[in-house]
Design a protein that fits this description.
- The protein is an all-alpha fold.
- The protein has 2 domains: 2-105, no CATH class; 108-279, no CATH class.
- Helix content is 45%, strand content 3%.
- The protein has 15 helices and 2 strands.
- The two termini are 42 Å apart.
- Bound molecules: zinc ion (ZN).
- Residues 114, 117, 176, 178-179, 181, 205, 208 line the site of zinc ion.
C-alpha cells in the first residue's frame, strides 16, 4: 500500500515538475531551444538524412507549429509535456493541445492520477451510487431539467460513478467534475503558476478527460495494456494474439450488485487499471459465457420458484 502511494506520488511529481530554469527566468520567457535544446533543435529528426516531399512538408508544418507553441507558451510549463510535444511526429501548436496530447499518450498515468485526485476529494457527504431512472432519449426537455436530484446520474453501471457530475454535489466551474479537485491553466491539476485560484473557465482536468475516456472504452487502449502485461495473456500466460481482448477481471454488473456501497474513490479502481486485463479471445469468450450464465440464473432466482423464464433458460 505504501509502495503504491509512493508510486502515485512519484507519478504526480513526474507529471508536474516545475522547470527551475523557467521559474528563474519568469519574466524573460525562455525560447524552446533554451528550454529543451536537444529536442527543439531542427535537423535532428530521423527523416532528415534524405528529405522527401512528405518530410519537408512535415518539417515546414512542424516549424510553424513550434513557432505558434513558442509564442503562446508561458514561462512556466510542465517540462514532461513540452518534451512530449516536441517529440511528436506533428507537434501540437498550442499549450492546451500539448497537454491533451500528453495525457492521451500516457493513458495509464492519467488513470492513476485521476484516481489519486479523486481520493483527495473523497466521497461527498450524503452521496450514494445511483443510476438514472429513465433513458436519456426519454428525458428530453424541461421535465428532465426540473428533476435536479436525477440530473447527471449515469444510466448504466458501465459508466463509472461521478458524484461531482450530479447536480446536488456539483462544485461548479474551476473544479473538475470527474475528481472534484481544482483545475488550473491548460486543464493542469497543480497550480504551477502560483495564481492561488482555479481556472474559472475549466470544468475538467486534461488528465481526467483522458482517464474518463479510458474508463468507458478501455478496449481503445489495448496496445498500452498489452505492453504492460509483457504481451502475455493474463489468464493463460501464453503469448497474446492479435485478436486479444480487454476484460474487466470483476465484471461491472457484479460491482453494481455487490460492491455498490464501497466508498467512491475506491469504486473508480474497478474501471481503471487494477480491474483490467488483456486475455486471448477464446478465454474471453468462455469467461463472458460463464458470466452470462450467472446473470441468467440470478434473474431466474429473482423471478422466484415456479416462475419459469423461457428466455433466461434459453441463454
Ligand atoms: Zn480531475
Amino acid at each position: 500500500m505504501a509502495k503504491r502511494a509512493a508510486r502515485v506520488k512519484t507519478d504526480m511529481a513526474e507529471a508536474g515538475p516545475v522547470e527551475a530554469k523557467a521559474k528563474a527566468a519568469k519574466a524573460a520567457r525562455p525560447t524552446l531551444a533554451e528550454r529543451l535544446p536537444a529536442l527543439a533543435a531542427p535537423g535532428t529528426g530521423p527523416g532528415d538524412a534524405s528529405p522527401s516531399a512528405a518530410s519537408s512538408w512535415r518539417e515546414a508544418r512542424n516549424a510553424a507549429a513550434r513557432a505558434r507553441l513558442e509564442k503562446s507558451l508561458p514561462a512556466i510549463f510542465p517540462t514532461s509535456v513540452l518534451r512530449h510535444a516536441l517529440a511528436r511526429p506533428l507537434a501540437p501548436p498550442t499549450p492546451r493541445l500539448a497537454v491533451e496530447s500528453y495525457w492521451r499518450h500516457h493513458i495509464l498515468r492519467a488513470d492513476r492520477l485521476a484516481r489519486a485526485l479523486a481520493a483527495r476529494s473523497g466521497q461527498p457527504e450524503g452521496w450514494t451510487w445511483r443510476l438514472g431512472e429513465g433513458r436519456p432519449d426519454t428525458r428530453r426537455g424541461a421535465a428532465a431539467d426540473e428533476d435536479l436530484a436525477e440530473k447527471g446520474l449515469p444510466f448504466s453501471f458501465r459508466v463509472p460513478p461521478a458524484p461531482f457530475r450530479e447536480a446536488p454535489h456539483a462544485l461548479g466551474k474551476g473544479h473538475c467534475c470527474v475528481c472534484g479537485q481544482p483545475v488550473y491553466r491548460f486543464g493542469w491539476h497543480r497550480d504551477l503558476w502560483g495564481t492561488g485560484t482555479p481556472n474559472r473557465n475549466a470544468a475538467w482536468h486534461a488528465a481526467c478527460v483522458a482517464a474518463w475516456k479510458f474508463w468507458i472504452a478501455p478496449a481503445d487502449h489495448v496496445k498500452e495494456l498489452k505492453r504492460r502485461q509483457g504481451h502475455r495473456c493474463a489468464q493463460s500466460g501464453k503469448r497474446l494474439l492479435r485478436t486479444a481482448e480487454v476484460d474487466h477481471r470483476v465484471p461491472l454488473y457484479r460491482i453494481w450488485r455487490e460492491e455498490r456501497a464501497r466508498p467512491w474513490p475506491a469504486l473508480l479502481g474497478y474501471w481503471g487499471l487494477p480491474n483490467l486485463q488483456v486475455v486471448n479471445r477464446a478465454i474471453h469468450v468462455d469467461k463472458c459465457a460463464a458470466e452470462a450464465g450467472e446473470r441468467a440464473s440470478m434473474r431466474r432466482r429473482a423471478a422466484g420458484p415456479g416462475a419459469g423464464d423461457p428466455a433466461a433458460d434459453a441463454e
